[in-house]
Amino acid sequence: MRRVVRGFWGPREESAEALAGRWKLTLDRLAGLLPVAGSDSDSGSRASGARPSAFRDPGSRSGADVPLTSPWTWRNVTASGPAAELRPDEASLLAALRAAQAADGWSDRTGCALRLVAEGAPGWKIEVSGLAGGTPEFLLQSMVIGVSSPDEAETPDAELLSTVAELWEPDFGGVTDDDVLDALEDDAGFAPDEPSVGWIGYLSPGRAALLPEDLAAAAREDVSGGGALLVLAARDDTEDVLRANLWLREAGALRPLPRPMDRAAL
Predict the structure, then answer these.
(1) Which of 89, 84, 117, 109 is nearest to 99 (CA)?
(2) Displacement of CA 43 from its chain's centroid (Å)
(3) pTM
(4) At residue 67, does pLDDT exceed 50?
(5) Is 260 exposed, middle or buried (CB count within 10 Å of its CB: 0-12, 13-18, 19+)?
């Protein structure tokens, strides 16, 4: 099955160096949370689920072990030319970001985009796409992590969304799949760029402040750095996800950023 972990925010200017730091922390965290999913050189340890050497990440929601340096090799997929291997160290990520900035048609207002792909044990694939550092008035910045896994595999959805929330400081986000996204658009009338969440959602501090007081405490968890993580439905309960989105929209917690945008979060 495939799930998508998403975070979106408005204009926030950042240097390539700052973005490279965020990217490195993100890839390191993914290697700690999904050790079987990466393209390290030891396929035996990948298949068995053994973790690479790690340290305890104090910023992790679950206190999960995170590799000191990620052993994975990623493929950097660009709009032109073949995909190139990329090691997840800060220097390599900075070089990739600067190459993206040097490409024809790049604009500092739009932001800097990267798309990285890694494949590990059979059935596992991770795609990480980010657009960040820009100051567009109408286009949201984003971090989107697609995780394909065997149907029987357990995936730490809340920890993955917490990673995006802590490291990218989005305005809103969620863990979702194609069925939920289709239902939100077709059955609930959500536009593709309208704020929404999945079976687990994230709201920035400004949005979390609009949550009704009767939201069950068990469904809400504060995130390091601000905002709230919301467990709203079971993964396979699309109807409950739709109801939660309609409820949050009615409460004002999912209203779009005013256009033209002049801030990163509500």
Answers:
(1) 84
(2) 26
(3) 0.88
(4) no
(5) exposed
